[in-house]
Specification:
CATH architecture of the largest domain: Sandwich
Number of strands: 12
Low-confidence stretches: 17-21, 278-297
CATH class of the largest domain: Mainly Beta
Strand content: 15-25%
Distance between the termini: 81 Å
Largest sheet: 7 strands, mixed
Number of helices: 6
Shape: elongated
Amino acid sequence: MKMKWAFLCVAISILTMLTGCESLMVLDPKGPQAETQANVIWISIATMAIIVVAVFVLLIIMLVKYRASKQGEDYEPPHIEGNPVVESIIVGIPVLIIIFLSIVTVKSTYAVEATPKQHEGQEPLTIYASSSNWKWHFSYPEEDIETVNYLYIPTDRPLEFKLYSYGPITSFWIPQLGGQKYAMADMVTTLHLAADTPGEYMGRNANFSGKGFAENTFQVKAMPEKEFDDWVDEVKKTAEPLTEKKFDKLLEPGHLGQLTFSGTHLRFLPPPEGEYGGHHHEGNESQEIHSEHNHHN
């Protein structure tokens, strides 16, 4: 009796806590890449649920049908040979499940690594997202502006993030727009995202990178392209220019609030030359940046 009441108390406590939880961000997608990944998660959950239910149903059937009977002590059960049909089912069903989940995973992986289909043919907005202990720097080379710890993006336009780090390996992640991808010090990785719905979203470093990791976050605001263009114009007119001395100060370990600059650090401190995970944006851009840097030196 006491065990029964203890079980009921635990169950009620768990249900009470779950009702107070917010919806999981990865299951509340606001972009095509995130929607693809959310669908894969739901497919995986449904597949596992079917397996669990089937296993428990078979367990109950076996316990009821083949439970121990009141046989004599000298009773010896008959010898039974293996059943090829049963054995084929036991082996075949798991193989089919693995094949199904593998196909779904591979197809979705290729889909989220490329520009979203509905935005093919559109010119992507390229943003260089670099991390340092413990900040995020967002450089808009075409707009010639830079922000720290916050990101403004237009909706209904493909986004091409170029990721790298000025410190330990970090992981760039906006759960409601897509999956995470590593940012490293010696190479550039490319991440394709898009936002369909205006709103504010959370972004963070998803890879442990020292004592300041917990606060290595940034805010994302998606808005119609007209509003985004107005914001860019305002930044160009009002923000202070980003100098090499100022950027060196920003790279020092520590936490900062949100900052905005005209110009980008790409002019005097270009990203790593190596690139992985995507094509080069405007082929000669990196070479031009390096040439300019060498000329100034």
